[in-house]
Amino acid sequence: MLPPESLSAPALADALIIDPFYLAISVDFEHDMPRRKAVLASYFAYSMGEAERSGRCLTLEDRASGAAAWLLPRADAAEAAESAAKHAFLARTLGPRGLAHYHRIVEFMAAQSPAVVPAGAWYLSILGIAPAAQGQGLGAKLLAPTLAEADAAGVPCFLETFTPRSVGFYERRGFRAAATHREPVTGADYLIMCRAPRSPLTT
Question: What's this model's pTM, rounded to 2 decimal places?
Answer without folding.
Answer: 0.93
